[in-house]
């Protein structure tokens, strides 16, 4: 094969590969899907990602993604699990599987462990920290949690409106 044929073959492969997708959370209605819509297109519920993604990068060809928040985010689930999301999370996504995750940790007893993989098995999600995993029903993730209050925000918002909760600017939710 001649050098020109090789160059033409390389260019045809390069041009045939879809470019990475870069989008912001508030695109104003452009054709780019949100990070939450990308999750759904791979059979994941939106609730595995908290509210507040400002933008994301996604390469369709490799499944590599990065999602960004304005700052780190933490909240408790069902009073037993504490989760932290860094301001940047990344990994690889494919149908029913998130692998190579970084930027998401869960508190187990007194240790913070990295969640490295999430798999969907029918109506359940399996969260792995490498040495152990926990399975939860998918119905727990139909809505995205909010930083600071998780899924318990409605009662906190109602109490705040009634004046039962006062904010302290010197206390962080993280």
Structure description:
The protein is an alpha+beta fold. The protein is built from three helices and ten strands, in the order H-E-H-E-E-E-E-E-E-E-E-E-H. Strands 1, 2, 3, 4, 5, 6, 7, 8, 9 and 10 form a ten-stranded antiparallel beta sheet that branches. A hairpin with a 2-residue loop joins strand 6 (97-108) and strand 7. Keywords: Signal.
Unreliably modeled segments:
2-27, 165-174
Arithmetic mean pLDDT: 78
Structural shape: globular
Q: What series of H and E elements makes up the topology?
A: HEHEEEEEEEEEH
Which labels suit this protein?
globular; 174 residues; single chain; at5g01610, DUF538 DOMAIN; disordered N terminus; 36% strand; alpha+beta; signal; 3 helices; 10-stranded antiparallel beta sheet; 10 strands
Write a concise synopsis of the structure shown.
Keywords: Signal. This protein has helices at residues 3-16, 35-41, 153-162, and strands at 21-24, 55-58, 64-68, 73-77, 81-94, 97-108, 111-114, 117-121, 124-128, 133-137.
